[in-house]
Amino acid sequence: MSADTIGRIYYYSRVRRFLDSSRCAFILAAWLGLSACYSGTRPPRIGSNAPDFSVQDSDRKVTLSQLHGQIVVLNFWATWCAPCVEEVPSLVAMQQRMKSKGVTVLAVSVDVDPNSYHQFVRDHTTNLLTVRDPEQKTPSLYGTFKFPETYIIDRNGVMRRKFIGAVDWTEPEITDFLSKL
Fold first, then answer.
1. Which residues pair with 153 in a beta bridge?
2. HEC readout, the chain
3. Domain segments of the chain: what residues?
4. I want to staple 84 with a disulfide (CB 3.0 to 4.6 A). Which of 27, 67, 77, 98 is the partner?
5. How are strands ordered across the β-sheet holding 149-153?
6. Per-residue pLDDT tens for 56-114?
7. Options 3.30.70.1290, 2.102.10.10, 3.30.930.10, 3.40.30.10; which CATH number does 54-179 get?
């Protein structure tokens, strides 16, 4: 074999090794990323009783247990969170449509600035039961750190579903699910 042929074989074997290692690294990273998102089981607490809590802000005091017997859509949000703001109109529309079926949206804001919170509620006609928890005690109780994050709690206080990120609450799949609880 010529030196040129040996050089090409060496070059291609190195490229192949690099591509194989890159492919393995990509597959490993994808697998780890997916396993971090979904472990193949239900999210923690689904099927168990929702932790009870009370939140007192300048406007009202809300306790989860006072909503027992209703289907509660517990939504953690903030005015500075673009996806949260994006989903508010669909939450309002869904509650208007489902209120007669015993569905109540409880929106817990984590806003630190009370003025931003009150201005948002006024400007966006959020006809939802909303309360501000600036210390984030309630989201912490639920293990929430990304916003928006929403839990569906049935009439008996059992958590049935969890949504991370903005949702169109008027989608038939969601309203059908809520209707069947």
1. 72, 159
2. CCHHHHHHHHHHHHHHHHHHHHHHHHHHHHHHHHHHHCCCCCCCCCCCECCCCEEECCCCEEEHHHHCCCEEEEEEECCCCHHHHHHHHHHHHHHHHHHHHCEEEEEEECCCCHHHHHHHHHHCCCCCEEEECCCCHHHHHHCCCCCCEEEEECCCCEEEEEEECCCCCCCHHHHHHHHCC
3. 1-41, 54-179
4. 77
5. 129-132, 103-109, 71-77, 149-153, 159-164
6. 888 889 999 999 999 999 999 999 999 999 999 999 999 999 999 999 999 999 999 99
7. 3.40.30.10
Tokens of 135: 């210390």
Contact 126, 94 (CB under 8 A): no
Residue 34 has pLDDT above 60, yes or no: no
- Give this prediction's pTM: 0.75
Distance CA 115, CA 52 (A): 27
User: Whole-angstrom Cα distance, residue 104 to residue 46?
Assistant: 19
Q: Is 103 exposed, middle or buried (CB count within 10 Å of its CB: 0-12, 13-18, 19+)?
A: buried
Q: At which residue do the structure tokens 């999210």 appear?
A: 43
